[in-house]
Amino acid sequence: MKVSARFLLAFTLVATATIIAILQGRIGFRTDGGSAGQMRTTWGTPDLQGIWNTNTFVPFERAAQFGTRAMMTEEEHAKALAELQERNKRPGRDSRDVGGKSGVGTEKDVARAYNEFWFGDKPTKLSYRTSMVIDPPDGRIPALTPEGTKRLADKREFLAALLQGTSGGRPGPISPRRSESSPDYNLDRINRADGPEDRGGPERCFGDGVPVVLGTGTFGGVMQLVQSPDSVSIYYDVGQGSGYSWVVPITNRSHLPANVRLYRGDPIGHWDDDTLVVDVTNFSDETNFRGARENLHLVLRFKRVDANTLSVQFTAADPTTWTKPWTAVQELEKTDDKTTLVLEGGCHEGNYGLMGMLLNTRAAEKAFREGKGPDPATQDNATGGGDN
Amino acid sequence: MRKLVVTICAGLFVAAAAAPARAHHAFAAEFDAKQPVKFEKAVVTKMEWTNPHTWIHVDVTMPDGRKEAWAIEAGTPNVLFRRGFTKDALKPGTAIVIDGYRAKDGSHRANGRNLTLPGGQTLFLGGAGTGAPEEKR
User: Fold this and answer.
1) What are the chain B neighbours of A57 within 8 Å (beta carbons)?
2) Do A351 and B20 count as a contact with CB atoms less than 8 A apart?
3) For chain A, what percent of residues have pLDDT higher than 90?
4) Is the peptide bond before A136 cis (omega within 30 degrees of 0)?
5) Do the domain assignments include residue B135?
6) Is the dihedral of CA A5, A10, A15, A20 positive or negative?
7) Which of A129, A176, A193, A377 has the fewest CB atoms inside 10 Å of its own CB, making it the most exposed?
8) What DSSP line would sit under A273-324, residue for residue?
């Protein structure tokens, strides 16, 4: 009888401790329909792990007609959704028409590369939210500073100059600026292929800037998050082999010295209750995040809203680019880990395309010198050109 | 009048919403619009599942009976995986029809503008957005 009493007491204590541990979230268990509070790692932090993407479209900036209104009305949503669905029915890259005529044999048909299949499924869902940008209240990125305005205008003018005289640019003779260097560290697709530096970031396997916000649909990419007690890996597989990862230490150390600059910055993480906060500084002048360069400061906040939803909110600040900081939020959806294979983004090894662009431009220049073809400078090799 | 305004606004909203993603690289710098190619029977020898682009290697029988090995540039593997297109989809020995443009340097490389599977199934019928400049306006 005494043994039974001891057993009962021990059982009660263990059961009580287990219930308390579960309530405190220290014992992890995962269910598809579980709440965010139940999603814990075995070491006690919120479990944000998984492969995330979205098929629900939210415009990045708010259309002016919505003013400071964050959500669409039922009527506006129904109308916008119908338009989205209608647009999805339109012929895409399978169509070879250009301005109602056959585009076969034109620059544009070449620029379209391959047909629609390779661009994946289109987004079919439309959020009621009118913008990802939630601050400022008008849902739009704040005005550029005079310095930022000039920097971006200089680049636009340079890009336009290199397109001058082609089907995709303004009319006129080939610009004398064709021999100039880019006014900034080039990551754009410009109409010149003198060397790798003339090609865009994705073409050079430098990734697609700092994605942070994923595109919508199959082509929009995925984000995979993997945790350990002292670090978090956030891997973006976006575009066409343009992925990259942040390995974020969970630490209270300071950022790297100001003279150490990294293409994707120095990320440092900490937990703020159930939110993973990642502070990123020390970007380089080769970084390009919506026009911001080395002075960019990003603060990202990752929070699991429920078992299938991850909120990614970020605040971007750069006093040399924007007149004030701004904040945006995107909600990602959990995908099936088994069917969503995340491929390594490092694509230099298989990037025959970059070599092909340089070699074939040299071949075209040689043919031009021999009177066997047009001057490549008069062709639009950057945007796909006009209707010719 | 109010309804008209709402209609126009919604139209603008969706036009912005559905702006298509751009292609990875400048195919026009690599392939020649004046050298379209079409292979009625290209036999797959291997497929490279590499980022940033997949490459389909094929043997093509020329009109004089000679066989030529060609490499065909196609889209990124990531999208294919997400569409359920596995490594078994284009096995060696599969005869496909390829329609594209030859490299400017005259090598046996081309982009695969359209691919058709045996039995006439076209890779790939699709949805919206060409990325063409006039569609962004």
Assistant:
1) 17-18
2) no
3) 61
4) yes
5) no
6) positive
7) A176
8) TTEEEEEEE-B-TT--BTTB-TT-EEEEEEEEEETTEEEEEEEEE-TTTBSS
